[in-house]
Amino acid sequence: MKIELKQIIPAPLPAPLVTASQIWGKDLTLKEGQSILAYAPSGKGKSTLLHILYGLRNDFKGSFLLGNSLSGEHTFENWQEWRSQKLSILFQDLRLFPHLTARENLDLLPVLSPHAPPVEEWGERLEVSALLDQKISTLSLGQRQRIALIRCLRKPFRWLFLDEPFSHLDRPNTELAVRLIEEVRQKNGAGLILTSLQEISPLVCDRSIQL
């Protein structure tokens, strides 16, 4: 399932940022299974790009295709289905429920991937298994980020959107996360769009594009 961007310009976005970007205001095709690094300093629209592709924002000019369907043709129910079956996202602000435990947050997924093992297995791999029954509010940012990553990997997806996924992780935990992401993505045969502040990422991508 490819993604085609057609002259997307979010509002408001200053004209100089559009001119300098390799994504905004351009035609761009992201092939099925391809991994893309979209990099830029803060404030250039990295989160905005992922939120548009995930169907959470419609305040933009232009259009994009998911597979063969224009984004503007999707109903609310269509987007719900895409987000439960074909798209998965790790939000930069994580969007976990602080009053629930880590396990309860993970159990909220309506649909699980056939590749998803019990939560303890991936919790062990990311060294958060001992924290699964603690409330999110008691966890550090790095621990929360690993829980949010497990959540987005446990659902079905054809495209995986990761918004600065290693921002709160040290090098050893980043390496653990990279290995799990690549393993799960390959099992799903899925594409990846990863955002970063820098052109170089711990997770090697097929293509780097300046936002």
Structure commentary:
There is one protein chain. The chain has one domain (3-210): 3-Layer(aba) Sandwich (Rossmann fold), CATH 3.40.50.300. It is built from 7 helices and 9 strands, in the order βαββαββαβαααβαββ. The protein has helices at 15-20, 46-53, 76-85, 102-107, 119-125, 141-153, 171-188; strands at 3-10, 27-30, 35-39, 60-66, 69-70, 87-90, 159-163, 191-196, 207-210. The protein has a 5-stranded parallel sheet, sandwiched between helices. The chain has a 4-stranded antiparallel sheet with strand order 2-1-4-5, covered by helices on one side. The longest helix is centred in the last third of the chain and has 18 residues, at 171-188. The chain is globular and about 50 Å long. The protein starts with a strand and ends with a strand. 36% of the residues are buried. The mean pLDDT is 94.
Write the SSE topology:
Blueprint: E1 3-10, H1 15-20, E2 27-30, E3 35-39, H2 46-53, E4 60-66, E5 69-70, H3 76-85, E6 87-90, H4 102-107, H5 119-125, H6 141-153, E7 159-163, H7 171-188, E8 191-196, E9 207-210
Parallel strand pairs: 3-8, 3-9, 6-7, 7-8
Antiparallel strand pairs: 1-2, 1-4, 4-5
Helix tally? 7
Number of strands: 9
Overall geometric form:
globular
**CATH classification class:** Alpha Beta
The CATH H-level homologous superfamily: P-loop containing nucleotide triphosphate hydrolases
Strand order of the largest sheet: 6-7-8-3-9
Question: How much β-strand is present in the residues?
Answer: 15-25%
Percent of residues in helices? 25-40%
Structural class: alpha/beta
* Low-confidence sequence ranges: none
User: Termini separation (Å)?
Assistant: 22 Å
Give the SSE string: EHEEHEEHEHHHEHEE
The CATH architecture category equals: 3-Layer(aba) Sandwich
Radius of gyration: 17 Å
Give the tally of structural domains.
Answer: 1
Largest sheet: 5 strands, parallel
Mean pLDDT, as a whole number?
A: 94
* CATH-defined topology: Rossmann fold
